[in-house]
Amino acid sequence: MIWTDRIRQVKIVLVTSAVLIAAASLVISHFLVRDLSREERNKMEVWAEAMRSLNSADETTDLALVLRVLGGNNTIPVVVLDSRGEVQDYRNMHLRAATAADTTAQLQAAARAMKHAGDSIRVSLGDVDSREQGDDYMEICFSESLLLRRLAYYPYVQLGVVLIFVVVAIFALLSSKKAEQNKVWVGLSKETAHQLGTPISSLMAWVEVLRENYPDDELIPEMDNDVKRLQRIAERFSKIGSLPEPKPESLSEVIDNVVRYIGRRTSNKVSLTTQLPAEPLMVPLSAPLFEWVVENLCKNAIDAMEGQGSITITAVDEGDTVAVEVADTGKGIPAKHVKTVFTPGFTTKQRGWGLGLSLAKRIVEEYHRGRIYVKNSEVGHGTTFRIELRK
To answer: What is the mean pLDDT of residues 146-167?
Structure first.
């Protein structure tokens, strides 16, 4: 749980940092765009005044300065219209038209869009206000420069880059976590199998000695069954970390073995029932490992029911797949925990390690290429786990 909490904290920090960076970038870019937009409008007012000076030039006009101002605009798109709406001049416009008529139409359309956006300056060519007296005038229509448009889009590009970085970082973190957990679980399983090997061999030898000395004792066969059970458990642990080769097994027989084993070791207050098809369901399985999965689900169900209730195991042929459902009448799983029950270390038991469902998920999904999930769960009414396997 400590490692899981740490991963969650790192993810929260990364996402929060990404949001703060994106918000700061958007705010800063907003102010930069606003200030540059004002600056460009001021430049266009000077440019419009230069156009007025050029059109009304006399011997006192400094044409060199006027032409320098007009030629200094190399970034802001401009269309100059006369009082009749006809195009008189343009600068920094990217045109796609092939003919003069198409060019004029495209420029007029661009000028209308600029005027609609409020980016136009009317310059009177007379001494009084042209709009009141009907004198000749020019309409200087302009739009944002390419640099300003790029700057407006830049925060969103930056946001995308930050988002990609965060996603990659979280994916790398989770992959590293999963790889480390896998090494721990595999090492623990193999070491457990190794440590069990010696005492199990010794117990098998002692059972043979007892059988020779007390051939009629009824308890010795039960002892032998328990020792074989230990041997089977050790075999399961030894298979964790390796890729077992599934072979066709009767799913009904595997489930019956689990029910017989659990039934002998649980209270009479727990009802174990199965709903299996009449025809054998042959599925590629590693029988020892899959039995472990079903046993684990049954034991968790017994704990959830506190030793009293019913467990129903159902197997259904669904064409290309076979579904196994383990339903109990226990206390159920809260909705907030449904997605985390398979997380290594998650447990609601005081003495649990939180490895059972994690290993069950690994066995089903990695070794059998199947799927295991909580089909439904209602607090106070029970839980149903569903396993889907390919035939």
So the answer is: 80
